[in-house]
Write a structure and sequence with these properties.
The protein has about 375 residues and is of the alpha+beta class. About 15% of the residues lie in helices and about 35% in strands. It is built from 6 helices and 19 strands. It is elongated, with a radius of gyration of 24 Å.
Length: about 375
């Protein structure tokens, strides 16, 4: 019976993959509409369950709060109240609770569903943005960023939020050269941002560190495993290029290109599984300077922040490693099979993205 259950699960997952489904989790945090400051919505996501806490005002200006809770729908892209106002999924109000510093006298009175239904629909390309419909009105909301940008920063938050250490898992299972190593890992430290706008726009820089414990870029890591990146406003994704420090037989360096959607503390790319980086990004391993980089397979990748900006900029810890870093070998990306003929617009977009990669390669060579 257990084998049959696993087979049924595998079949359903395979169907989901063929339907372009991908892993998605809305970010937990405080959301607001920057065009309408003064109110907000705290969203807590645990598994496929969500709890909402809205801080608002009554028509007379007195403060109030509402809550709602329930299960996410549509692959975690949506939450909506049910038709049962008593189940907690509609907006609840409260009265008679404990005051600040007062003795506890019992739970407040709950008015279940008294403020009507609520619906939240997240942006499938950005798990920090959504639209909320409540009180008969729909508005855009986004996660409030308290400290991803500093008051002295000249760069946009799309650049400053990349500062820190990131650990990644790359899925090479569809690469015939993986030699049994279906998954690979990487550690990236991003510790510099460039206020001077380069041809590719604002950029950031870093390295693959000597090990996963240091959290800093040594001179050797900068020399052999340097990193450069930027934000592509047209796709809404970040491009990061890492020199693997491992020349091939012809003496050409190997490059690893990350094309990912970045949240507050995580990023992902290529989760649609079609190996076409123009759709959902991914990781491409190629010989630096390859003209057909955008025609190569892009493999699924997930990454998570494992150290903060403050740590990589100001932290103290183990001494930086000395000596050369061992070259990192990744299986080379193959040319995508069954690639369709590109339209003029698609070819133009391929060339635009290739030009951005060339700019990042140039940045690595001129460090």
């Amino acid at each position: 019976m257990r084998r049959l259950s696993r087979l049924a699960l595998a079949t359903s997952l395979a169907f989901a993959a063929s339907s372009s489904a991908f892993a998605y989790t809305p970010e937990t945090g405080i959301y607001w509409n920057p065009e309408e400051p003064g109110t907000g919505l705290l969203i807590e996501v645990q598994d496929n369950f969500v709890f909402l806490f809205g801080f608002l005002f009554e028509p007379d200006g007195s403060p109030t709060f509402v809550t709602a809770q329930g299960f996410l729908e549509d692959s975690a892209l949506r939450f909506a109240s049910t038709d049962d106002a008593s189940d907690g999924s509609s907006l609840n109000t409260f009265q008679g609770g404990q005051c600040l510093g007062c003795d506890f006298t019992g739970q407040p009175q709950i008015f279940a569903g008294s403020e009507g239904p609520v619906t939240i629909e997240w942006d499938p390309q950005d798990e920090t943005r959504a639209t909320v419909t409540w009180g008969g009105r729909t508005t855009s909301i986004e996660r409030f960023q308290f400290y991803l940008a500093r008051p002295t920063d000249q760069e946009p938050v799309s650049i400053t939020k990349m500062l820190g250490e990131w650990s990644t898992t790359i899925d090479f299972s569809q690469n015939p050269q993986n030699m049994g190593g279906r998954f690979d890992g990487d550690v990236l430290v991003i510790d510099q941002k460039d206020a001077v706008t380069a041809p590719a726009g604002f950029t950031f820089e870093g390295c693959r560190p000597a090990d996963s414990l240091v959290g800093f870029c040594s001179d050797a890591a900068f020399d052999s495993d340097e990193l450069a990146g930027t934000f592509d406003e047209e796709t809404g994704r970040h491009l990061m290029l890492v020199n693997n420090g491992s020349p091939n037989a012809s003496g050409t360096d190997s490059c690893l290109l990350y094309d990912v959607r970045v949240g507050t503390n995580d990023f992902a790319g290529g989760l649609d599984g079609d190996l076409d980086g123009s759709n959902d990004g991914g990781v491409t391993s190629y010989a630096c300077g390859a003209a057909n980089v955008m025609e190569l397979e892009a493999y699924p990748v997930r990454g998570f922040r494992t150290a903060s900006r403050s740590f990589v900029e100001d932290g103290t810890g183990p001494s930086k490693a000395l000596g050369m870093v061992s070259p990192r070998q990744f299986p080379a990306s193959a040319v995508r099979a069954n690639a369709t003929q590109l339209t003029v617009a698609e070819a133009g977009e391929r060339d635009r993205r290739t030009a951005k990669v060339r700019e990042l390669e140039l940045q690595l060579r001129t460090r």
